[in-house]
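Quick one: structure for this chain?
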Amino acid sequence: MASFSSLSQPVKKYSAITANYWAFTLTDGALRMLVLLYFYQLGYSPFALATLFILYEVFGVVTNLVGGWLGARIGLNKTMLIGIVIQVVALLMLALPSEYLSVAYVMFAQALSGIAKDLNKMSAKSSIKLLVVKANKEEGDNKLFTWVALLTGSKNTLKGVGFFLGGLLLTTFDFQLSVLLMAIALIIVALSTYPMLRGELGKTRYKAKFSELFSKNASLNYLSAARLFLFAGRDVWFVIALPVYLASQLQWQHQAIGTFLACWIIFYGIIQANAPKILSLLSGSGEKYSHQKVILWSVLLALVTLILCLAIYLFPQSNEVLIIGLFIFGAVFAMNSSLHSYLIVAFARDEGVSMDVGFYYMANALGRLLGTILSGLIYQQVGLLACMSFAFIFTLLASYFVRKIA
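Got it. Here's what it folds into:
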């Protein structure tokens, strides 16, 4: 405690923001896995499962736009805490007996969870630029890349742990008790970090106008388009198609599905967190970032996705081919995601950073929404290979827009 109290205020706030972000991410990942497995167990079709998450993604789109404006008006610390409160409400709604959990009701609860998640993420990502600028003015972009990669990578690692936690909770307890336990844990984290999140971090000196939400920066717009297709290319097979395929075609048990998805996300998060080191090692010159590297990794992702499509076509029932292929995809995808996450924070204005970050993650949410709908629809009609084929098309489009960034 003595060593913590000796830290600078920016580092203390970074620690509090990270603790909130980590706790939220654990519950978000666990809740997604709980809802997916629980309602699949009740007999829902792949497309019906996708509908449970549609409002989650739709409200994510809206929240990133409005949340960026709200953060500029009232401060990022407040929007982060509002996100925690809304997530607690969503969890408590789902703690009702199963006979009350209609599709419409669960969709509404998931909508609240989507609002909460994107308020939390937008606040955390926007805060990093401001805190790194204050604490590390002399170290510039490399330090910013390192901190953004650490926050993003650790978040995805914990989201993977959340997937595992969701499968474990559903195996150990019933659905209702599981979400109630997560709500209590979030309340404890929020109360313990609140004293360190006071102030007006990210609040603009002027009254931010709603019209400023839409970016006029061409590079940021191209990056946002690339992000949309990048995440559509992941979620079109990951959200619904893969877990249902593992359960129905390869006969995996719930705990095995949760464990595999957890391991994949954890691996993906570790790669993200270490992206600056990986780029330095591969370049041999210590250089962590260049525009050419972003283009290279984007093209490589499209190539890996195409090879994975061919592998699934040739070996449709092979656990080994699918697992190895998805881990290779995860590594290359993580490098792309980490570079994108750095670029948006670097491109964003110091004054009104939350609005630029909010616009960008609005595109991210649109990509997830597109991927989620198509994941259930395409898998139900055609199968996993078709989902992967769409993933290849989306990664090609992401590569195209990355090339146009100035």
